[in-house]
Design brief:
This protein is mostly helical. The protein is built from 15 helices and no strands.
Length: about 375
Amino acid sequence: MTEAVFVAVVALRLLIPLGIPKYPLPFIIAALLLDGVDQTIFQAVDATSVLDNYQDYDKALDVYYLTIAYASTFRNWLDPDALAVARFLFYYRLAGTLAFELTGVRALLIIFPNTFEYFFIFYELVRLRWNPARMSRGLVIGAAAAIWICIKLPQEYWIHIAELDVTDEQAANPWLLPAFLAACALVASGLWPLRSRLPPADRTPDLHVDAYIDRPTSCAVTPRRDMNAILSVATAEKVLLLATIAVIFSQVLDGIRASSFQLVIGVGTIVTLNAVISLWRVERGSRYGSTVAQFTAMVTVNLAILGAGVLLRRTAGVSAYLPIADAAFFLLLISMVIAMYDRYRIIGNLSLDKRPRLRRRLRDMRQVAH
């Protein structure tokens, strides 16, 4: 029973975030809620083998779904200011998570709070009723700062410094929930009169993000056709991102004998080879028709790379540094992130080409309003 519950929860934490790119708000909230209750579920079924290492497990899966959310910003966010803030917040938290996994110092998690997650939700909430491009740079940065100071710092202190659990505290102090609801009602009543100051809505709410964005007419997107597609900032970012994720997950998965340095070298090699093979495909006129097709192609390529690596090691008489199950997991994870990053970045760039027209529309709207 315990093992079945554990597998089910982990499967949900891996599968739910896959809906974020097209339905960002409901799926990021679902991932957030599951992240908040999984420890309680494990305690209910006495999953002690998991709870002994819960923080490492939790932070690794947090990084997984936040990476998908970050990749989706390339696809869905048309505002360069919001993209820049999101990138900073994501990598700032990623650096803190890596430092925590390597040192075990919990205070690092309050120094590097997970502001990206709530900033992502804020942006998607705005999108439900308004065009986010209407937000000024100051408003975007101010929103991130308010989330950081007013929401995330108290939350990170509660979880990682005070090490308190909502379920335990509620059981010990039954008045906490009514007090919290009363406080929320008080804040809502104070903010309600300010609704008249909000600008008029641009649209009716729609949870499907493509309802608001003009996409390229063809789903078959083409990467750049030169060596800059390999020796580029994008390739360097993929190496940095995936190497960091690999090191974080290596602290959770059992049986890994590879050092962090060896993982970084291995991931960097795989990412670079993927870039070379993708360029070769483009030169032959091949294009990926969908994200699933690109992911399948990446898995096939990386299986071949993995097979070649295993063959070389066996020929040299050296045992593998990764158990086969862990190697398969890393292969799927690397393939998924590369496919999402490459495809969403290109689609986002094609959508950004429409930004001058968008600016003209917004300017015309403001002139009419005045």
